[in-house]
């Protein structure tokens, strides 16, 4: 039997929504077994913790292993309460400021995404889930002067995750493209904050809540 924590990452101001994340703190499972567990759990991502004190983590979607992903890093850093995470992509700095947990990451660590701009937030709201294919991050300005964006994410992997509620890696790429701090409303009501830094890193932050612990 395997225990795992269930978090919601990038919750809205009312504490609702956010992207669900599974975190398994003790697992000697190999890559194939971890992939099978991630597929069985069915979260958009599942984190396996290899060293809780050093923050060494391993990230899986239901169908593939990822060297880096945004909401898993934000959630895992909050849960483990560590100043950095060790991922295959590199060291991810982490800090807690008030109600927001922040990570520091490089845009080149993020998996490829198609950033597709629309003219209005209403157009983004009206989008239907596209057929499997490319990974699409649909976005539009809600208030450009204030850096407020409406976004939705469609992974297109055909693994049962038709729409991702909140995606830090895509927000990272959009921030790098636009070169400015953003306040992103994604999915049904999630919130992602970002800010570029002079050293090439980008801060990605959001609220994290613990749903509870379950057993596989």
TrEMBL record:
Pfam families: PhzC-PhzF (PF02567). It comes from the Bacteria. SUPFAM superfamilies: Diaminopimelate epimerase-like. This is PhzF family phenazine biosynthesis protein. It comes from Streptomyces lonegramiae.
């Amino acid at each position: 039997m395997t225990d795992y924590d269930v978090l919601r990452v990038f919750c809205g101001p009312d504490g609702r929504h956010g992207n669900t994340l599974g975190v398994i703190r003790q697992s000697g499972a190999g890559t194939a077994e971890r992939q099978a567990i991630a597929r069985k759990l069915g979260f958009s991502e599942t984190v396996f913790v290899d060293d809780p004190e050093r923050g060494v983590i391993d990230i899986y979607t239901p169908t593939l292993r990822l060297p880096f992903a945004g909401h898993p890093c934000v959630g895992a850093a909050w849960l483990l309460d560590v100043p950095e995470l060790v991922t295959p992509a590199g060291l991810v700095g982490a800090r807690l400021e008030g109600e927001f947990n922040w990570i520091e990451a490089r845009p080149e660590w993020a998996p490829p995404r198609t950033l597709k701009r629309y003219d209005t937030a209403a157009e983004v709201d009206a989008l239907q889930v596209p057929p499997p294919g490319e990974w699409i991050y649909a976005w539009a300005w809600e208030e450009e002067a204030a850096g407020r964006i409406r976004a939705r994410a469609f992974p297109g992997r055909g693994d049962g995750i038709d729409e991702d509620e909140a995606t830090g890696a895509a927000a990272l790429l959009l921030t790098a493209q636009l070169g400015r701090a953003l306040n992103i409303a994604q999915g049904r009501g999630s919130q992602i904050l970002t800010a570029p830094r002079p050293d090439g890193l980008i801060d990605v932050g959001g609220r994290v809540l613990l749903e509870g612990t379950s057993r596989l």
